[in-house]
Amino acid sequence: MAKKSMVERDLKRRRMAKKFESKRTRLKEMLYDKEKPAEDRFIAALKLAELPRNSSKTRIRNRCLVTGRPRGYYRKLKMSRIALRQLGSAGLIPGLVKSSW
Known about the structure:
mainly alpha; Helix Hairpins; two-stranded antiparallel sheet; 50% helix
């Protein structure tokens, strides 16, 4: 089980990214628009830098929904390999059969 503080931190980052998503995209469009004057693009860059760092999508970490583990994560199932194996062995995931030979 992952530390609760790390899981909560990631949830906070997800909330902030969702909150600032529209503002961030609008500023980035202004920043990369070569038709606009350089002064306006510079102001957009300053405003973008003023936004909280945790509002960036790149700071979000994929974590297992069951255990909170950050590594060995399957995106399709939203869980780690260890949780997948445990739930699969218990027969709680339909269609998944643990191989043995």
